[in-house]
Amino acid sequence: MLTICTFNIQNDSKNYDISKRDQIISLLENKNIDIYNLQEVYSRLDKDLTKALKSLSYYICGTYRFLIPNRYNEKTPIITNKKIISNRTYHLPFLPSITKRIMTKVEIEDKGKIVSIYNTHLEYKYDSVKEKQLKKILKILKKDNNPIILTGDFNLKTNKEIFNNFVSELEKLGIQHIDVSDKTLKISKYHRAIDHIFISDDFKLISKKRITDINTSDHYPVLIKVDYK
Fold first, then answer.
1. pLDDT at position 70
2. Under 8 Å between Cβ of 195 and 219
3. E-only strand ranges, the chain
4. What are the beta bridge partners of residue 204?
5. Could you give the CA distance from residue 222 to residue 190 in angstroms, rounded to a whole number?
């Protein structure tokens, strides 16, 4: 069985202290998470996470959006305790937005299977840019023959047409959306998620939930448990 979590940890770098790292690590340990996909990870937190994860035999994979450091230079890392076969970072279309967007991919070995894990954080403002980014993600996934897990902050609610078109295209690839049926952005007045998890038909869903008792972010983590069919 695999425990998978996606969590936008909120870029609050100006107010960062070590307790934020501790809460993120505590969730990992308390829920026995195998695949922990984060968004909005900035350099100060990244350094502290990397140090703490090493002592727990977890690996953090992924590169930054920009080569030159700045306050928007975030990672979308994949953290796992599984054997890593490969990892890479894809750059997604972003213009006319000024903020680059990326998707991290890690291949892990688990129970004799090679599994592809993807994690991303899409554009928040322009739907036209989100649509381009989703098309790029689909193009990448179509070339992948491994069991697939895709997570991230998509900045798209489940009633948006471009999101539902994306879900339909994924279903053609044998990849299903896990609907948590409630909001994942705390300040939203709508009970619809923007943080999502997708799994290929190689997996069966055991459980799903939002984690609502963590206060280190403006998002709720989404956690699922799956097993192989």
1. 63
2. yes
3. 2-8, 35-39, 59-61, 78-80, 83-92, 101-110, 113-121, 148-153, 175-178, 195-200, 203-210, 222-228
4. 227
5. 17
Residue pLDDT, tens place only, 84-105: 999 999 999 999 988 899 999 9
User: Are residues 202 and 226 in contact, defined by beta-carbon separation less than 8 angstroms?
Assistant: no
Q: Backbone phi, then psi, for 52, in 5-degree steps?
A: -70, -40
Hey, where are the domains in the chain? 2-228
Q: Which two tokens stand for residue 13?
A: 């770098």
CATH 3.40.50.2000 fits 2-228, yes or no: no
The order of strands in the sheet holding 35-39 is: 59-61, 78-80, 35-39, 2-8, 222-228, 203-210
From first CA to last CA, the distance across the chain in angstroms is: 10
Which of these, 106, 70, 97, lies nearest to 155 by C-alpha position?
A: 97
pTM of the predicted model as reported, rounded to 2 decimal places: 0.96
d(CA 93, CA 136) in angstroms, rounded, equals 8
